[in-house]
Amino acid sequence: MTLADPDRRSGIQDGYLALVARRRLYGGLTLLIFVLLMSSGFVVADGRNAGGFWSGLSQLGDFPAGVISEAWEKRTQLPAHMLNYFPALLETVNIAAVSTLLGALFGLVLSLLSTRGLALWPRLTPLFRRIMDVMRAVPEIVIALVLIFVMGGGPVPALIAIAFHTSGALGKLFSEVSENADLKPVEGLSSVGANWSQRMLLGVLPQVAPNYLSYALLRFEINIRASAILGFVGAGGIGYELKNAMSWGQGKFDEAAAIFLLLFGTIVVFDQLSSVVRNRMTKGAAL
After folding, report:
1. Rounded to 5 degrees, what are φ and ψ at 42?
2. Chain-centre distance for alpha carbon 53
3. Burial of 110 (0-12, 13-18, 19+ CB in 10 A)
């Protein structure tokens, strides 16, 4: 019996159609469960909210409209406001830069200790992986709130919180890159008596440095936004100034608009700069 046999072809076709029907059924059931969970979650959240979502939907644009209208009326004052809040913006960028640097250094060490074939203590590889899981699982804002309670407000709690989370995030990404590194240079260095640090520094890092820097720059963009958000809970920077301007309400909306423009422009600039640098490092594209 061959594939040319009509009965055999019919059997294969029937089996294929049954498989497709079964996959469609599973996909439809999964989608139905997802829709039910989303719907029930929305109903529960809407019921526990202080105000109903549907009743307040008509007021969704009131705040943006108020900010834009007041900013337009006082548009001549926007440059002065932006200049006034520029030091707070620098503080936010500094928090993001230092926390990214610290997170990248700790993430580098954790990644090498948790990479199969490169780890200094192979039996402890799962332990270091779980440590990075915990560091990624805890949101920056939770860590910042705890540190603010202990240390008081300011940029230091934000810096520590972002660096802690960044270490786990970059450590995971760095580890995945390191797993694809060629082990021949490492074996060659080991054969001439190089220790673990020398093998990593001379045999692994030159191979993975472009990807490491690319991920670190991407994380720097994310940390700028994170440091601004943490300002809302008293961690300093331009986010703290934005919270104050918004809390005052009408009469301060022009300052809030100036801060929005500063923050938006900064994120766009650093996003474009880091994209250019990443393309240069990973693809050899021209700057």
Report:
1. -65, -40
2. 28
3. buried
pTM of the model: 0.75
Q: What is the largest CA-CA distance in the chain?
A: 86
pLDDT of residue 234: 73
Angle at Cα 136 formed by Cα 132 and Cα 142, nearest 5°? 130
Distances (CA, A) of 243 to 81, 86, 230, 259: 15, 16, 10, 10
Dist. CA 78–CA 255, nearest whole Å: 7
pLDDT single digits (tens) 130-163: 998 888 888 888 888 888 888 877 788 888 999 9
Residue 82: pLDDT band by 50, 70, 90 thresholds? confident
Residues 6 or more apart whose Cβ sits within 8 Å of residue 268:
none
Residues 6+ apart with CB under 8 A from 95: 155, 158, 159, 162, 223, 227, 235, 236, 237
117-120, long-range: CB within 8 Å, 24+ apart, which pairs?
117/179, 117/183, 118/178, 118/181, 118/183, 118/186, 118/200, 118/204, 120/196
* Unique residue bearing structure tokens 């958000």: 229
Q: For the residues 235-258, what does the mean pLDDT come to?
A: 79
Helix (H, G, I), strand (E, B) or coil at 61: coil
Can you tell me the distance from the alpha carbon of 60 to that of 260, in angstroms, rounded to the nearest whole number? 18
- pLDDT of the residue at 208: 83
Does residue 45 surpass a pLDDT of 70?
yes
Pair 285, 279: CB distance under 8 Å: yes
For residue range 261-275, list pLDDT tens digits in order.
Answer: 888 888 888 878 877
Which long-range contacts (C-beta less than 8 Å, at least 24 apart) are formed by 274-280? Answer: 274/217, 274/218, 274/220, 274/221, 277/213, 277/217, 278/213, 278/214, 278/217, 278/218
**Residues in Cβ contact with 124 at an 8 Å cutoff, skipping those fewer than 6 apart:** 113
